[in-house]
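Hi support team,

I've been running sequence recovery on a batch of backbones for a student project. Most finish fine, but this one hangs at about 90% for roughly twenty minutes before it completes. I'm not sure whether the input is malformed or the queue is just slow. I've pasted the structure tokens below so you can try to reproduce it. Let me know if you need the job ID as well.

Thanks,
M.K.
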């Protein structure tokens, strides 16, 4: 069983608005082997029957997945730990010296993109225009700024998500 497009959309909906959650969910989705194993094991949860829970939400049971004892490779264990940490799962504080040391290049690219997203780097702006306006105001002794916030251009993500998902056992 694979993680369906509906489950992926539900995960993204559940995480929306919290950058670390968005990053953890995206890392899970883009690491297809883990997302598929969680889906197959019933660890992508939803509560469609509960009227108190918005329909379509799906959330990962990271702790239950790990506790079920699936045979995970070292790389998969590291990715799951990083996902758990980004999602704030109790007991998943990550030792980065261990977590990143054993990752291959594809997995490291996913982790770098997740950390960039969790930081909000995809929302950062080039603040050159503001800095220039502040310097001019200070130099001229002005009490107001001649600055248009739209002049500060959005910056690209610090480390964008790779185009391809990691599908191998790694």
């Amino acid at each position: 069983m694979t993680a369906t497009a509906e489950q992926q959309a539900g995960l993204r909906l559940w995480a929306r608005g919290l950058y670390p959650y968005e990053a953890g969910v995206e890392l899970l989705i883009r690491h297809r082997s883990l997302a598929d194993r969680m889906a197959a094991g019933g660890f992508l949860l939803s509560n469609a029957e509960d009227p108190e829970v918005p329909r379509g939400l799906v959330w990962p049971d990271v702790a239950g997945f790990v506790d079920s004892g699936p045979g995970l490779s070292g790389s998969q264990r590291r990715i799951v730990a990083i996902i758990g940490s980004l999602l704030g799962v109790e007991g998943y504080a990550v030792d980065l010296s261990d977590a990143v040391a054993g990752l291959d290049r594809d997995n490291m690219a996913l982790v770098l993109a997740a950390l960039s997203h969790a930081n909000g780097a995809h929302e950062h702006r080039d603040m050159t225009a503001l800095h220039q306006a502040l310097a001019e105001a200070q130099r001229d002794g002005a009490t107001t700024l001649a600055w248009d916030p739209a002049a500060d251009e959005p910056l690209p993500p610090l480390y964008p998500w790779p185009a391809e998902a990691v599908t191998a056992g790694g």
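--
Follow-up from support: It reproduced on our side and the slowdown came from queue contention, not your input. The first strand starts at residue 44 and ends at 45. No action needed from you.
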